[in-house]
Amino acid sequence: MSHVRKQALVIGNNADAPYHPLDAVQEQLRQILQDDFELTTSLDYDQLASGALEKYDLFISYTDRWEEAVSAEQAAGLLTYVANGGGLLVVHNGISLQVRPELAQLIGAKFIEHPPYTELEFGVAVDSGGASHPVVEGIEPFTLAEEPYRFEFDPFCAKKVLLTYRHEGQDWPAAWAHSYGLGKVVFLMPGHHLPSFQHPEVAKLLRGGAKWAAKAK
Question: Rounded to an integer, what is the distance from CA 196 to the centroid of its chain?
């Protein structure tokens, strides 16, 4: 490898995951990011509070806990990490961190519902100026079977919608990015199960989102 890879940590759930176990996708995610990141996977949420995040360039949330909020200490650890310059990449169900309101604000939106899993057409959000953003550089329009997540956006967060999906006659946000303090935050909606991660355009999105959030060139 001609360059030093950055360090990334992904936290999720397995036996207690209601819908999206981390072990179903972690090896594919590792392969997608392997050129630029050394990926550590964990089920231990205490890493958010212990200061362990400081040794990582990127934290990836694939959390699947929609009822139980992380502790105040864990939330504070993640907020501090990002505010001090850490990268946060939230993938699909990783938005379940929203149960803690401070983290919904960090991510920039709350998941509110999703219609049934179906084929969706995705494309870069040209009207928001998102087309020039590094996260979606080189992304071609693509079709993918996914859960059409709907969101309520935080009005205080100046995010840029980068990707949309077409459903029920209109375009809905599917990815966005913003700064938070000295850090960067990216949300990507695709990621329901392994076939999503196996799609080449989703792999490009994950690489672009990870590199931008971690400030990797």
Answer: 13
Residues making up the chain, counted from first to last? 217
Has residue 158 got a pLDDT over 90? no
How do beta strands 150-153 and 37-42 pair?
unpaired
Lateral strand order in the sheet of 6-12: 37-42, 6-12, 58-62, 87-91, 183-188, 170-180, 160-167, 118-124, 142-146
User: Mean pLDDT across the chain, nearest whole number?
Assistant: 95
Other beta carbons within 10 angstroms of residue 4's beta carbon come to 8
CB 122 within 8 A of CB 165: yes
Instruction: Please count the other Cβ atoms lying within 10 Å of the Cβ belonging to residue 201.
Output: 18
Q: How many CB atoms lie within 10 A of CB 49?
A: 18
